[in-house]
Design a protein that fits this description.
The protein is an alpha+beta fold. Strands 4-5-7-6 form a 4-stranded mixed β-sheet, with helices on both faces. It has a 3-stranded antiparallel β-sheet with strand order 1-2-3. Helix 1 crosses helix 3.
Length: 203
């Protein structure tokens, strides 16, 4: 049951200002996350740029994702979920990439510029596919999309980089498919793989 002072909303047309709000929340929550440290090449000043390029790609590119927000009684953004739709893959098209990817990449150190595409475009997708036994798992599932999958009937899949989320997803009925440590020059970071089968609602 959600707190009485929190309002949840599905945002049909996300705005630039919402993307900026979500980026600030991301930067605040991920500041000590090992995955974030690795993906910014150890330069935590780049955390907002990392968040912005991913959030904006999914939220501001039509037909790519769904955005749900949680706001308190003062209208402040206190949480959100952004889901990539089946058939879509984050930062995989020029339309998505123009929302800050090249700006972020340009700020990384040479070592970071080599590491980020290698791990995010190759190593992480490979780990996901192996854990779930699904080819192109991120593209062929409702990636971290609980609401949509509950309606349509599909495999819901997601990963987390924080161990505190593991029991939460298990309580929500997700099955843990495995755990993998991703090495980096700055800090090794963990991935836990979860999926859940759902059934379509009867018409």
């Amino acid at each position: 049951m959600s707190p009485a002072n929190i309002t949840f909303e599905h945002i049909e047309k996300p705005t630039e200002s919402l993307a900026e709000e979500a980026t600030q929340v991301f930067a605040g929550l991920m500041v000590e996350d090992p995955a974030a440290i690795a993906l910014v090449g150890g330069d935590m000043s780049l955390l907002p740029s990392l968040g912005a390029c991913m959030i904006r790609a999914l939220a501001l590119t039509p037909g790519v994702g769904d955005v749900f927000t949680a706001r308190n009684e003062n209208g402040e953004l206190v949480g959100y979920a952004i889901f990539s739709l089946p058939g879509q893959l984050i930062l995989s098209t020029p339309e998505q990439q123009k929302h800050g990817l090249f700006d972020f990449m340009g700020k990384l150190s040479p070592e970071g510029q080599k590491y980020y595409p290698e791990v995010m475009a190759k190593e992480v997708p490979k780990a996901n596919d192996e854990a779930f036994g699904i080819q192109e798992a991120e593209r062929n599932t409702y990636w971290c999309n609980f609401a949509m999958a509950a309606k349509a009937g599909a495999t819901m899949a997601l990963t987390t980089t924080n161990i505190r989320n593991v029991p939460i997803y298990e309580k929500l009925g997700f099955k843990l498919y495995g755990h993998k440590v991703m090495p980096s020059p700055w800090v090794d970071w963990p991935l836990w793989f979860f999926a859940k089968e759902t059934q379509a609602k009867a018409e």
